[in-house]
Amino acid sequence: MRLARLRPTRAALREMLAIAGPIVLVSLGQQLMGVVDVVMLGRVSAAELAAGGLGNLYFHLTGIAGIGVLLAIDPVVSQAVGAGDDEGVARGVQRGLLLALLVTLLVGLTALPSEWLFTLMRQPAEVTPAAARFVWWSLPGLLPFYLFVALRQVLQAKHLMRPVLLAVLIGNVLNVVLNWVLIFGHLGLPAAGSIGSAQATSIARWVMLASLLWSAWPALGPILTRWRPESFALAPLGRMLAIGVPIGLQFFAEVNAFGLVTIMAGWMGTATLAGHEIALNLASTTFMVPLGVASAASVMVGHAIGAGDTAASQRDAVAALALGVGFMAVMSVVLLLAPGAFARLYTADAAAALIAAGLLPIAGLFQVFDGMQAVASGILRGAGDTTAAMVLHVLSFWGIGVPLSWALAFPLGFGAAGLWWGLSVGLSTAAVLQLARVRTKLRRPVARVTVDLPVVT
Questions:
Q1: In this predicted model, what pLDDT tens digit does every residue of 105-126 receive, in sequence order?
Q2: What three-state secondary structure class fits 5?
Q3: CA distance linking residue 173 with residue 270, whole number of Å
Q4: DSSP code for 400
Q5: Measured between alpha carbons, how far is 150 from 99 in angstroms, rounded to an integer?
């Protein structure tokens, strides 16, 4: 398959938009909760903004691998849907929920030493205690978060996104109200700052899960009320882990590369850390669109492979790349034209805003490659090709991006900008390698992913 010579058909683009649109809205809605937290904390002080950003980053760094493990649901369920295998769908969902319980336990344990680790990593002393308490107060929302992720993957594989959209809308409204009460201390409660932000998010996540179960029960009820004994079999669960763990490691490699850069930014002081957090939060927000397109690509490519339609998987891959990369090209121009205006939306602290305004143009330059690597990874996930994608990510970010960030920032003296330029090189390398892998993988028919071995009679 020559991606450069394939044009996405109008039908493929329309179908991709129809599926990707709701997924993108959900991704943006979930990211918006973090944006609101940052903006509201920025109105308290730079220290509270940095504490909330550092705590949220730690929680995200440790939790992202769990999300990746749960994305094993994508190829298993979407390919089962494409093949018309209802029992395969049910088993995939139930095993996904069992994996959600497992990753909740493992990720929860990583939160316990957060304050000690912040101190070890030489983060600002005025930020460390509040950041650690942010992590601890985020723990009650961990289980509903992972269960929500698992059920969301199932519903998007079935093209049933309205319940997910409703749940995210409810969660966002509740998060704003609870932030207003808990961060600033209204309705007779004390002002809790960044800790109040974590408490608000944990409560909102439980409400989101309850809302999703209520509104999607007609689709989820038949799957959740009758558990198949085979769903508890260890061998198929192990095979799902073999699909999901590389996705988790891929996400871990990328997010923790940004996390290590955040730690390095913390070595430069509170204002630099806050400015870095603003730029990172905005770049993460634009990234939600190609990430949503990547999820849609995973579903559509999985459906095509399940149905045995190689040509459709190729058309869907090209359509996804056109949409995801095209959007990020537009956002690249936007960030390059108005970095100062965006920075001032986040904080009234002049020093933090100035640093953010200097970093946002760099973020604008790597937007296209960010979209490319995200969508290519989603395509490979839909094909069940997760190990190769993980290896390419680790090499790009940790073999190139992180060492170059450190060298540019410290020995060469480019400061925070050097951190971002190094990551940009690593990100661009990942994009080129992932795209090459897509071309190789979809050149020929791809076998359906199965975790249940065929019965021999």
A1: 998 888 888 878 777 777 777 7
A2: helix
A3: 30
A4: I
A5: 9
